[in-house]
Write a structure and sequence with these properties.
By secondary structure, the protein is an alpha/beta fold. It is about 30% helix and about 25% strand. It contains 14 helices and 20 strands. It has a nine-stranded mixed beta sheet with strand order 10-20-11-19-12-18-17-14-13. The termini are far apart.
Length: about 500
């Protein structure tokens, strides 16, 4: 029997502390495809939709590719944007249905202007068309904030197990295989959801440093050995969203044919207890002054450095919804006289356009960065430098995240200021692939220091070429000190909040 399955993606991770909103243009400048264009763009890529395509073809589904919408993390999704994406989805579901099952790629930390749980809001809309009975399988980012309502809306929820997220395709494959089992009646999947009294935990989900998240995933694997436990997802949560469910959670997908709710809840509780016990272990960034001291010491002994030192501008990570235009770290490098540096990607469409108009080779004096909210991360930086390269920003990911997908930084330039090559872009983008630097002719391996606006995703592509990695907090919007934020919606108590 060939099942009819609708395949959907609506992915947005939303920071509630920013002054920005996520608009339709943010999806169109990132990933926004409908119908046949989805197959063309996602086949054989390291993405959730890529994994869904794999299983749809292997299982001979009659797949209906509805919509694939993905924005860079930012402010809450505007109501106009939410309605446009939702209404297009519902229109196609009504026209193409009925279906035997639905697959939806979500982030799990979507916030809209009208709902602090934007993912469940979207799923409710889908259920309004499909009814309550057909199985829905979803994927979630490891940094999902999972609300209890999710258990009433979907039957299968599989989260990434790596950070950097290099398993997106494989996670979707697992979710879709379970969906096939559910449609065939071989399994009766259900969800059990629990969360500890924690806002900050799981070492933010890092799996690159053999820390707490690695031990938690080992425990989750043990829980999956029990009869009927199909998957145990540990979500580190997204603390840049002031919502009730912000923080770590455990989502158990279990087969009601083989085990009961009590057993699934007990497994979730054991994992939540372990998250609580490990809540104090955190590999956070160092102050910017300490970072500069270490870099100066390294530059004094150049023979000891045969590969770049990679510095993560942690708190200005666009992957958490930060502005990506903070200048404090670049200014500190200039003040310290550190050279042979590449820094990116600094968001400043105005400066990128002005420099591109001046042309390669032009000497230009202008202010860069710090324009979205000058109170955050250093404000605009007055510079004089030379335009080294200009690009339209188009590239393909080649690293372990989003492998094969096309993306665009918009009009982009390499602007050299006193030995620092600053990549200035028009589209906000986390520096998680070496090809992003190469858009403007910067070869990462040739630099002594690489400054990347990222928290952890950069490690997938840059760790192989790094002599050392330094995380620093330069005062951006996403500083990890959550006690400095005015949380109003988060449930209490939630460590470290009382």
């Amino acid at each position: 029997m060939s099942f009819r399955v609708a395949i959907i993606g609506f992915i947005s991770e939303n920071n509630t502390f920013t002054c920005l909103r996520t608009e339709m243009e943010d999806f169109r400048s990132s990933q926004y495809y409908i119908g046949a264009d989805i197959l063309k763009s996602y086949r054989d890529t390291g993405s959730e939709i890529g994994g869904a395509i794999d299983i749809a073809e292997a299982c001979n589904w009659q797949a209906d590719y509805i919509i694939a919408a993905h924005s860079q993390p930012g402010g809450p999704v505007s109501e106009a944007t939410r309605l446009e994406i939702t209404e297009e989805t519902l229109r196609q579901l009504r026209a193409g249905g009925p279906y035997d099952g639905i697959f939806v790629a979500l982030h799990g930390a979507m916030v809209t202007e009208t709902d602090q749980d934007g993912d469940s809001q979207f799923l409710r809309e889908i259920r309004s068309v499909t009814g309550p009975d057909i199985p829905i399988a979803i994927t979630l980012d490891l940094h999902a904030n999972v609300f209890d309502e999710m258990a009433d809306l979907v039957q299968i929820a599989i989260s990434f197990q790596t950070y950097p997220h290099v398993d997106m395709r494989e996670v979707a494959q697992k979710s879709c295989k379970l969906l096939d089992d559910a449609m065939a009646g071989r399994k009766d999947p259900q969800l059990a959801i629990r969360r500890p009294a924690v806002l900050v935990g799981c070492d933010d989900g890092r799996t690159t440093d053999d820390g707490p998240m690695c031990r938690l995933l080992e425990s989750a694997e043990c829980e999956m050995q029990a009869r009927g436990i199909l998957h145990a997802a540990i979500n580190a949560g997204f603390t840049d969203a002031d919502v009730w469910a912000s923080g770590p959670s455990v989502v158990i997908t279990y087969d009601a044919k083989q085990t009961g709710t009590d057993q699934a809840e007990a497994a979730a509780k054991r994992l939540c207890d372990e998250i609580w016990e490990r809540r104090h272990v955190w590999n956070g960034p160092i102050p910017i002054s300490d970072c500069i001291t270490r870099l100066k010491a390294m530059q004094a002994e150049p023979e000891m450095r045969k590969a770049p030192v990679v510095v993560a501008d942690y708190s200005d990570n666009p992957g958490s919804g930060a502005y990506s235009d903070c200048t404090a770290l670049i200014k500190a490098l200039l003040d310290a006289g550190i050279t042979n540096v590449a820094a990116g990607a600094l968001l400043d469409p105005e400066a990128a356009s002005l420099l591109a108009a001046k042309g390669a080779g032009a000497e230009v004096t202008l202010s860069i960065g710090g324009k979205i909210d000058p109170k955050v991360g250093g404000g605009p930086l007055d510079t004089t430098g030379k335009v080294i390269a200009i690009s339209n920003g188009h590239f393909n990911y080649e690293g372990p995240m989003f492998t094969g997908l096309a993306a665009c930084t918009g009009i982009s330039v390499c602007f050299r200021v006193e030995g620092i090559d600053i990549m200035i872009v028009s589209n906000r983008m986390q520096m998680l692939d070496q090809n992003i630097f190469r858009v403007v002719g910067i070869e990462p391996a040739e630099k002594s220091v690489l400054v990347v606006k990222s928290m952890n995703h950069f490690k997938g592509a840059f760790r192989p070429i790094a002599s050392e990695i330094i995380l620093t907090d330069a005062g951006g919007l996403c500083s990890p000190d959550v006690t400095r934020r005015d949380f109003r919606r988060v449930r209490r108590p939630a460590f470290p909040l009382t």
